[in-house]
């Protein structure tokens, strides 16, 4: 396809349109006034004005080794002058000029969102040096510099907020709402300061920052290499000789050169075969508005016909931030005490599991203290003094015969695919923390949408152990999974998939970069992913949401379909018009008008790729989105507390009756004070609000039935407590039913939470 018009070309095309249009109108006025010779002169001048630019376009196309479909236009213009069909020539010139102008306008409109990324890129930053603030070139910023970000300024480099910052991240994420970043939180370059001035501690140079990588991709964005464009050029290779042969045949049938000229006039495909590139560029713009930066049109076109998707696990299918699943303590110790000690020591560790322990301790309101004599051994863990105790967190020397509580925790880790962090206090095994990286809320719905968009095989590659990999694969219904994969293993696997079908690879880490480059299309989770993965990828998701991949896939499929439709439809219409002209039923002037209509129609059709299409999801009302965010936050707060139900059941099954009864009471209070009010609010506030975006109240009917079951089981637990109070404690005949109620509640609530998160909470964009 033609590249985006240069400034000189942009000035030439409107000038040519004005000149040719003026000649056509002047000739028409002269004809109406009875001066046929003046009219012919004006139209001939308009025809001649179009020959020069058309010839230049042909030569430029041939230099790029393209078929040069504008050659037909040149032959048609010369032919109209030769046979005296000056009006037809003038119409062709106007058609050429208007088609070129329309195409340029379409490409400029379609690439607006991509250019906006480039225009926003900052070139300098304000650095605090002592008591003064100096403006310095962006290239001079180094990690550790303290920058001042004023109101309305674009953050120039990646860093950490030195104080609270209110940011507009829409340019990167597509999300319109402002977000707040607290002191110490990461801030990505390219976001806008939507609040008062704040200070930022740089953590990367400008070249290695998020926005710089996105700008590099955007600068390359275009459809120069789109296979559809080459298909159009190959079509032109047979379309040109066919047009000439039809023109000769028409001349032979009619015995006059006018028929040949008429055929060449309707065969003139100036903007016709450019409809495919316009659709591709429109798709690129549409993707950019959804937080997806696509390197070029080739990537968009290939994504649109992909059949296999290969995904990394950590940070792609999962959140990439492990969460504490449970804390088990040895007899005589409490889980809260052990978590406080472990998190206090882990404050000085950069390990991702250490961050999870510290985050969990803060969430539980535990007071942490600074450790002493801390030392960390990579792959083993960290040791140090906390509260006068020598503490070890991580992999520790385990006794040959694990105590029962430790064995139970180890077995649960195997069942849940969880990571294990052991805790020792003064050399004695004292506790264990289980952590798991949760599957993204939007992952199941996203994979369903990807299947609907045309993907037939979903494969996961991960460096994690087999248990965790199988757990995620089972939850998401993947077709295949491979664990403990090194970067070279991932490359081999991707190449094997690529040999079978067009393959897309999605990842976020440095170790994923080679596999991304090996795939037909590489997709990087750019929001928290590494610069290496973003640089190796063809597509970057600028927000930390997997559903943007489904957006990109749907856009790619639709854009490719529209591109093929536009190119094929335009050629078909031209072929039909050529046949009519060859038979003598379409004179040159009328043919020129018809071809102009065809060209404008197919280009306007190609611009439909800018739109969302019928399959686009209905936007949520702000109130509904607020409700979804509220209940999602409540799920995060309640999910870990659900273990109180299982713990109560365990006590009933193995503990003494008095202690078990106390635990069941705590579980009952949890149900009546927190769970049941939450479910009631969902039933009467959230579900009615979802009826419109989901299409009917039937969409939430199953979830409503689950609410009823949760209420029934909760009442059953309450009845058992009443009976225990009346009988002086739990009776043997209550045990089995109480166990079923407690374990059932734990299972149903976990499943219910997961279903709501996948089906409803993932609607928030």
UniProtKB/TrEMBL annotation:
Residues 121-218 form the P-type ATPase A domain. The keyword 4Fe-4S does not apply. InterPro entries: ATPase_P-typ_cyto_dom_N, ATPase_P-typ_P_site, ATPase_P-typ_TM_dom_sf, ATPase_P-typ_transduc_dom_A_sf, ATPase_P-type_domA, Cation_Transport_ATPase_IB, HAD-like_sf, HAD_sf. The chain crosses the membrane at residues 15-34, 41-60, 72-99, 235-254, 260-285, 562-586. It comes from Streptomyces tateyamensis. SUPFAM superfamilies: Calcium ATPase, transduction domain A (SSF81653), Calcium ATPase, transmembrane domain M (SSF81665), HAD-like (SSF56784). Residues 628-763 form the Hemerythrin-like domain. The keyword Metal-binding applies. The lineage of its organism: Bacteria, Bacillati, Actinomycetota, Actinomycetes, Kitasatosporales. It is found in: Cell membrane. One of its GO terms (molecular function) is ATPase-coupled monoatomic cation transmembrane transporter activity. Keywords: ATP-binding, Cell membrane, Membrane, Metal-binding, Nucleotide-binding, Transmembrane, Transmembrane helix. Belongs to the cation transport ATPase (P-type) (TC 3.A.3) family. Type IB subfamily. It is a multi-pass membrane protein. One of its GO terms (cellular component) is plasma membrane. Its main location: membrane. This is Heavy metal translocating P-type ATPase. CDD domains: Hr-like (cd12108).
């Amino acid at each position: 396809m033609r590249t985006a018009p240069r400034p000189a070309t942009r000035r030439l095309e409107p000038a040519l349109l004005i000149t040719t249009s003026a000649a056509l109108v002047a000739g028409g006025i002269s004809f109406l006034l009875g001066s046929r010779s003046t009219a012919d002169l004006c139209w001939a001048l308009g025809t001649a004005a179009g020959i020069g630019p058309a010839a230049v376009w042909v030569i430029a196309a041939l230099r790029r080794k393209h078929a040069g479909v504008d050659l037909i236009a040149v032959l048609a213009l010369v032919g109209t002058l030769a046979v005296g069909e000056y009006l037809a020539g003038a119409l062709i010139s106007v058609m050429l000029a208007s088609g070129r102008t329309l195409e340029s306008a379409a490409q400029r409109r379609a690439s607006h969102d991509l250019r906006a990324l480039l225009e926003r890129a900052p070139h300098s930053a304000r650095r605090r040096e002592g008591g003064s603030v100096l403006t310095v070139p962006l290239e001079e910023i180094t990690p550790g510099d303290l920058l001042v970000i004023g109101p309305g300024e674009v953050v120039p480099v990646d860093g950490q907020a030195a104080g609270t910052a209110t940011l507009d991240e829409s340019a990167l994420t597509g999300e319109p709402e402002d977000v707040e970043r607290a002191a110490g939180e990461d801030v990505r370059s390219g976001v806008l300061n939507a609040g008062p001035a704040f200070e930022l501690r740089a953590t990367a140079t400008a070249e290695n920052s998020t926005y710089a990588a996105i700008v590099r991709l955007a600068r390359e964005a275009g459809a120069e290499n789109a296979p559809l464009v080459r298909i159009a050029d190959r079509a032109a290779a047979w379309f040109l000789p066919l047009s000439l042969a039809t023109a000769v045949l028409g001349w032979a049938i009619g015995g006059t050169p006018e028929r040949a000229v008429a055929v060449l006039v309707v065969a003139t495909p100036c903007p016709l075969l450019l409809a495919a590139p316009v659709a591709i560029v429109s798709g690129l713009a549409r993707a950019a508005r959804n937080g997806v930066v696509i390197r070029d049109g080739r990537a968009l076109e290939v994504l649109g016909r992909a059949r296999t998707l290969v995904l990394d696990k950590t940070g792609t299918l999962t959140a990439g931030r492990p969460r504490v699943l449970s804390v088990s303590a040895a007899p005589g110790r409490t889980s809260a005490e052990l978590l406080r000690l472990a998190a206090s020591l882990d404050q000085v560790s950069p390990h991702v599991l250490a961050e999870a322990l510290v985050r969990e301790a803060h969430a539980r309101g535990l007071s942490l203290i600074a450790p002493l004599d801390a030392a960390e051994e990579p792959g083993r863990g960290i040791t140090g003094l906390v509260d006068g105790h020598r503490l070890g967190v991580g992999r520790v020397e385990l006794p040959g015969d694990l105590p029962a509580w430790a064995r139970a925790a180890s077995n649960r880790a195997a069942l849940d695919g969880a990571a294990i962090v052991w805790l020792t206090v003064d050399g004695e095994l004292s506790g264990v923390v289980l952590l798991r990286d949760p599957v993204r809320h939007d992952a199941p719905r996203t994979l369903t949408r990807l299947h609907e968009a045309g993907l037939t095989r979903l494969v996961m590659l991960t460096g994690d152990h087999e248990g965790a990999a199988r757990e995620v694969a089972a939850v998401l219904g993947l077709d295949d999974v491979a664990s403990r994969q090194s970067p070279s293993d991932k490359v081999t696997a991707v190449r094997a998939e690529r040999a079978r079908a067009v393959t897309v690879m999605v990842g976020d880490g440095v170790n994923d970069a080679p596999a991304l480059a090996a795939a037909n299309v590489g997709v990087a989770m750019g929001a928290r992913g590494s610069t290496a993965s973003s640089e190796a990828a063809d597509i970057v998701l600028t927000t930390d949401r997997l559903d943007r991949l489904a957006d990109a896939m749907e856009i790619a499929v639709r854009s490719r379909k529209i591109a093929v439709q536009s190119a094929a439809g335009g050629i078909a219409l031209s072929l039909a018009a050529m046949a009519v002209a060859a038979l003598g039923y379409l004179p040159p002037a009328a043919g020129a008008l018809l071809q102009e209509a065809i060209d404008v129609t197919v280009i306007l059709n190609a611009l439909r790729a800018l739109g969302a299409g019928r399959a686009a999801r209905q936007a949520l009302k702000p109130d509904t989105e607020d409700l979804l965010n509220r209940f999602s936050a409540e799920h995060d707060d309640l999910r870990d507390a659900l273990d109180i139900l299982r713990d109560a059941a365990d006590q009933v099954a193995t503990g003494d009756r008095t202690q078990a009864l106390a635990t069941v009471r705590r579980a009952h209070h949890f149900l009546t004070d927190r769970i049941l009010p939450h479910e009631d609010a969902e039933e009467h506030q959230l579900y009615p609000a979802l009826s419109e975006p989901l299409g009917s109240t039937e969409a939430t009917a199953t979830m409503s039935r689950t609410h009823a079951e949760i209420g029934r089981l909760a009442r059953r637990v309450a009845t058992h407590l009443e009976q225990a109070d009346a009988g002086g404690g739990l009776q043997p005949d209550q045990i089995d039913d109480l166990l079923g109620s407690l374990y059932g509640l734990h299972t149903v609530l976990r499943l219910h939470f997961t279903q709501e998160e996948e089906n409803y909470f993932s609607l928030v964009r």
